[in-house]
Amino acid sequence: MGVQSMASRVVLRGRDHELAALERVLATARAGDSAVLVLRGEAGIGKTALLDHAVGQAVGFRTLGISGIECEMELPFASLHQLCAPLLGRLHGLPDPQRDALSVAFGLQKGEVPNRFLVGLAVLGLLAGAAGDGPLACLVDDAQWLDEESLQALAFVARRLAAESVALIFALRDCDDGRELAGLPELIVEGLSDHEARALLASAVRVPLDPLVRDRIVAETHGNPMALLQLPHTLAPAELAGGFWLPGRRPLASRIESALHQQFASLPVDSRSLVLTAAAEPTGDVDLLRRAAALQGIPEDAAMSAEAAGLVEFGTRVRFHHPLVRSAVYRGAAAPGRRAAHRALAEATDPHLDPDRRAWHRAHATDRPDEGIAMDLERSAGRAQGRGGIAAAASFLQQATELTSDAARRAGRALAAAQAHIDAGAVDQAQSLLAIAEAGPLDDLQRARLERLRARLVFSQVRGSAAPRLLLDAAHRLAPLDSDLARDTLLETLGAASFAGRLGEGPGLREVAEAARAGPPSRTPPRMVDVLLDSVTGRILDGYVAGVAALRHAMHVVRQEQKTGVREAERRWLWLAFRVAPEPLAPELWDDDAWHEMAQGAVGLARHAGALNVLPMALTYQACSHVHAGEFDTAEALIDEATAISEAVGGVPMMYTSLLLAAWRGQASAALDLIGATIEEVRARGEGRVLGLAEYATALLYNGLGRYDAALAAATRAC
To answer: May I ask the CATH architecture of the domain 2-188?
Structure first.
């Protein structure tokens, strides 16, 4: 594919294979069935031009399109709202639970955290309903920059479209794993052949081109069309003709952005201000842009030069000709200009209709601490959390921390932001915020909270032998200051001690249970945390027979909380119901139905909250229930998802169910290799519980193979 210039007609070169694939998708939708395609490729490779071509070929289709915006990834459901906005007139036709879930997700009404399954069903219903009037084409560009909630919902829809006339086409960079879209039909968009690349380059160069320079450009761009078209504009004619130039050290995308920014810099002053303001406004709301432009004194005719340069179109929505144009304009602009754009956008945004985006713009409009903005960001964090966006809440809280001048208040906000980042699986950000908190004046309770968060961070990263001691020390420090938080920490310590198992260097389960029994009493009436802590403590200290009734009561409480809707403060404890006893709670009571239900509920809650630090654990235990049901493929898919999430957030994948699955499948060589590698790995970090499970998996494998002596030896080691 090639683009002759950003201002002229798009001409596709060397893309016969890709064009045929797009035509098949559209033809399938025309015939009354759904079709999905994921285009993957590096920045500038031509995915956007292919999507534009699909729009041009979708004659008779209603088309909906969105493009992910990197700076908007913090706002839950923002991209989904943009895609569905033209269809919201159909909301009344959805079942009440779906309509309410989608309305809360889009901020149209207040309510409980929306169930993402219901949100996905609602979007599916909207698209299917629209397709009833004629074929529908939905095109999603830069899917790697969609907010997580929107991407999950669209992936859900993509897997469930059936006999609807819907064509759903995604485009994303191949440097991003796009795990939510894994398994969908995909097409890798690669660079042009040397022949096509030379032809495209020749069409873009209007001066004599030295053959050596030409071949060097073609080789170094690897056939990337945007690079081929834009790099010549960064070189003087003498450089092109004589070969007197050196390639820069920046990544390809940065060189492309540099060329695009040079085009932007050549615009008149007012046009530059207008385009920069558009780049700072992710939604493409042309009315908002006009109001912000008027506040800056930008005349209406400023749009003409920008459109003539081929950088952006101002229609019913603001549309940049390529996502890299937006990033090139914004990143290349001076900081005062960016702040002025955000300041105008904040002033132009209705504080009642969209307070979160207004707070976001205000935060980016200032270069100094501002308590008023920080307070707005805290309120936005609360709303984001209520809509299921822990990562968004963490980002708002971090911005609030950065804009706080009072040292004590800054330290307190840093603690809150660190906790949100830990829950969201953002380890690096959490560590930086804890360092900020530690530098500030902290009272005794805040110091104890800091100690607890550091211990939680250690556990979330490695689940090793060091975490139990750190958590127990934090619990002791919290006991006289905050009894509820101390009991929370004791429950966490039981989980950490269970993971450390026989490799634990600090307190074991019995020592932690004794500390819990001697520690602060439960409140009246007890919280779910209290019920869990007391029941597991009794099981450990008093034995199974004496403790089974309390365990059954605890399991009943957890199941009821999952069904009726748990309070925000206690939601994170639902997953821990699996891991606070010598065995997971439901299997300990030989209740397979409860195991399946609790695992499914924990996964759902973690997904809805975006709690990436606990979602892999919940997925692993859900997978384990499927292994025991003989549903190996389902279990494998859940394991793969858990592993991908753990690696993405810098954690250690959980190998529990992987070992069991390999053993149950009877894959002797693969299972033994996996078991051996896992034992070596967990010994190094001190996750001793896996040792017993690895030996159990070995016994299971050998028993199935008829090697009973080896099975008995492994079972003995497991115990």
So the answer is: 3-Layer(aba) Sandwich (3.40)
